[in-house]
Amino acid sequence: MNEKESALHSEATEKQGSNTRYSFNLHGSSSNVKSKLQQDREYFINTFTRFTLQNFIQNKLVERSVIPYNGNFSKCHRASIGSIISLVRNAETSRAYYNNVVTCANAMCCPVCSARIMGKRSTEIKKAVHQWLNEDLLNTCYMLTLTFAHGLQDRLADLLVAFKLALEAFWRNGSLKRLLATCGRVGRITATEIQYSQTNGYHPHQHILLFCRKTDFDLAALRGYWLRALETVGLSGLSDIALDLIEARSAENYLTKISSEMALGNLKQGRGSGHYSPMQLLAEAADGSGWATDRYIEFFRAVKGMHSLCWSRGLKAYFGIGNISDQEITDGAAQPELTKFLDMISDAFKFLSASEKALLRNYAAFDDFEHAAALLDRVGAEYWK
Asked: Where are the chain's structural domains?
């Protein structure tokens, strides 16, 4: 076993030890459902965290000349579109957002935009899953996980290029296509995730939700297809780790992975153990870690133009889900269920600190106009309900 495969085996062992496998019932609910009070409290705290981290990384990326000071990412939730900024809220979920502000719509890197985007995307996936399961008793979903061996010395940009080529080779495999055709597959949703380990470096992997009929898959054959695809691009993996396939009796765990509540929820979890999600890495950087700042900037550069979530062609249309862009979500055009909380003159918005923007949005989320008005009065902003 070479060094990279040993690292992959080590990571898989740690994940198995933390019980990360999917074990939910498709038509049931998780025993770990949080109370409304817990969810609201986490939302309140996470909003502050998102805006604080966004402010930090915007300043750092401009300082390092990674992005221009007048680009969309650096202006996200700092600049307005027009003279009026609106605070809108979802009364059912007690969540709020700013409209008529510049947004980067970067679901991979932006702490603020990613939450809004993934919240909407998780709703779309839930609709597709429930519709598919209710169409026929033999319909089910499988969670396919693909990864490969990697090491501390590997550059993320190089890994992502090779990973993409391996994935293309895998899905082009004629035997795999025939196998998927026989299982009644109607499509797949792919979530790309990237983690970082101080021991083993960057760890790109994909979770693919397959919509198909209940099937006895030949797991050994599937693993062989993936290992051969890896070999064609100079990558490698361990057979029982590089590919995993389980029936996702509930997509709940998968949905949680990409939902807005988990984008920055449990932010401290994993820090100190040497394993970091991108947002955990960013939090470490904001705490003053130089190595974490360097690694996050490498991540930012490497994932430029990538989408964290992709549906196969025609799958959204199959479930009657509109093809809405991330930008439409962050601009508010894709959320007609939101209602106006207040309007404010945009000139005052740019003088609000990151914490004040977070606090104001939280007041809107919980429909607390009295405290929102007091905050705006304190900074001399003109507003109206």
From this structure: 1-33+121-324, 37-105+337-385
